[in-house]
Amino acid sequence: MTGVPTFSTPFSFLGLLRLQSEASIHIAGIPLDIGTTNRSGARFGPPAIRTASRMLVDGDHPHWWIDPAALPVADIGDFDIALGDIPESLALIEQQAAEHAHLIALGGEHTISLPLLRALAAKAGAPLALVHFDAHVDTWPDNFGQVYAHGSVFFHAIEEGLIDPRRMVQIGIRSPVQKDVYDWTLGKGVTIVGAQDVHHYGAQAVAQRVTEVIGNVPAYLSFDIDCLDPAFAPGTGTPEIGGLASWQAQAILRRLDTLTFAGMDVVEVAPAYDTAEITALAAATMVWEYLALVGRNTA
Ligand code: MN
Ligand code: MN
Fold first, then answer.
1. Which domain CATH number covers 101?
2. Which of 15, 107, 165, 195 could disulfide-pair with 10, CB 3.0 to 4.6 Å?
């Protein structure tokens, strides 16, 4: 083993110092958290995820046998947001996201997925498929009266035609939810795989269901860290027990190798509630899994 020890690695994602112009995949932090409905603090997610990612630089991915840090990936820093202003922040995020072909966003709260999907769908010229890990459906029409907040991101994404709900799978769902919201989601054609379904049927069956539903249209991966059980990801704003173990999420992701991914985000990491960096490490590792998955044929 050569190079610097993990703890001396630069504080960017995977220690990457590559220029944006040298990379085809760009990683950006988006420190927005004023649309959270419970505990805030995800604005500090990006630096925590970057710091934890430096654990992952000392070898190849042990399934795909590539080093994600060797891929043409650049950490471009954080997007600008408008402090205290959700609509203006969403406009700014969309504008900045439009400049990148393949973007991985480090949240921030889940609301950021809406402008990211607006930018991506505009580029694609068609609705995207969506793989959505979460404890929550996030299809509430509003959040305690607030139209744009982290619990309504996919209500708007569906209503705006950014994603095709018949090619959308939610994995890990288990929070309290109004039945009319749940039924609206199902009625739109969304496939909901509850956390209990993951535990009962296993990663292989879930991944097979995802690949059947998504098919081969361009897909977006949105990973809310609260899909994981609070035992594996306590550092988040709206924890729900009974969730996925980290290994279950990894096992599902590794089986999505027939999908064509166009982008990813990992959201809702709130380091103030974290313990021993386990939530930030889980988030960083899911990005690392994604990079290995999408880059495995290019290395
Ligand atoms: Mn959630
Ligand atoms: Mn969410």
1. 3.40.800.10
2. 15
Residues of the chain with pLDDT under 50: none
- Assess contact for 161 and 121: CB atoms under 8 A: yes
DSSP 28: E
In a domain, 254, yes or no: yes
Token pair of 250 as six digits: 């990894």
Task: Determine the straight-line distance between the first and last CA of the chain, rounded to whole angstroms.
Answer: 20
- Tell me the H-state helices in 160-277: 179-187, 195-201, 203-214, 246-254
Q: Look up residue 228 and give its DSSP letter.
A: B
Residue 92 forms part of a structural domain: yes
Tell me the CA–centroid distance for residue 240 and ligand 1, in Å.
8
- Specify the pLDDT at position 3: 80
Residue-number span of the structural domain to which 120 is assigned: 20-295
Residue 12 lies in a domain: no
State the ligand closest to the CA atom of 132: 2
Q: Is residue 192 part of a domain?
A: yes
Closest ligand to C-alpha of residue 226 is: 1
Q: What is the CA radius of gyration of the chain?
A: 17
Counted domains in the chain: 1
Which ligand neighbours the alpha carbon of 138 most closely? 2
The partner residues of 146 in beta bridges, in order of sequence, read: 143
Cβ contacts of 110 within 8 Å, gap of 6 or more: 134, 138, 150, 151, 153, 222, 224, 267, 268
Q: How far is the CA of 174 from the centre of ligand 2 (A)?
A: 12
